């Protein structure tokens, strides 16, 4: 039986369950931050116009705090590795309509889960000198 020998990166997760928000609307916001550095993702969520960005922001901040306090990881070196939204239970209500009818209202909920991993701090590369300018100066 094959085994998974992939290296496990240190990280943390956070989740919010039974959030009173449509899963499709939450997924729209989650797709904005997946794969971003954690601090940059917080900034994106802070200025996102969708109302779903507030609970997603709180879950991401909680995941960063979990990594910092439980795993002793540097919050500046964190990357949003996994972010997904699952459908929660649906509350069913009725809206009275004309002539004795009733329409069903579905108040949807969702479970938001975000995971962050620590990445090695990238060393800044030295600036490459433009070779084209040097060649032009030598020919003149």
From TrEMBL:
Gene Ontology terms: cellular component: cytosolic large ribosomal subunit
SUPFAM superfamilies according to UniProt: Ribosomal protein L22
MF terms in GO: rRNA binding; structural constituent of ribosome
Keywords: Ribonucleoprotein, Ribosomal protein, RNA-binding, rRNA-binding
Entry's family note: Belongs to the universal ribosomal protein uL22 family.
Entry-linked Pfam families: Ribosomal_L22
Protein name, UniProt field: Large ribosomal subunit protein uL22
Keyword Hydrolase: no
Gene Ontology biological-process annotations: translation
NCBIfam families named in the record: rplV_bact
PROSITE patterns: RIBOSOMAL_L22
Taxonomic lineage: Bacteria, Bacillati, Actinomycetota, Actinomycetes, Micromonosporales
Subunit structure: Part of the 50S ribosomal subunit.
Job of this protein: This protein binds specifically to 23S rRNA; its binding is stimulated by other ribosomal proteins, e.g. L4, L17, and L20. It is important during the early stages of 50S assembly. It makes multiple contacts with different domains of the 23S rRNA in the assembled 50S subunit and ribosome.
Organism this protein belongs to: Pilimelia terevasa
Alphabetical list of InterPro entries matching this protein: Ribosomal_uL22 (IPR001063), Ribosomal_uL22_bac/chlpt-type (IPR005727), Ribosomal_uL22_bac/org-type (IPR047867), Ribosomal_uL22_CS (IPR018260), Ribosomal_uL22_sf (IPR036394)
Family matches, as PANTHER family: CHLOROPLAST 50S RIBOSOMAL PROTEIN L22-RELATED (PTHR13501), LARGE RIBOSOMAL SUBUNIT PROTEIN UL22M (PTHR13501:SF8)
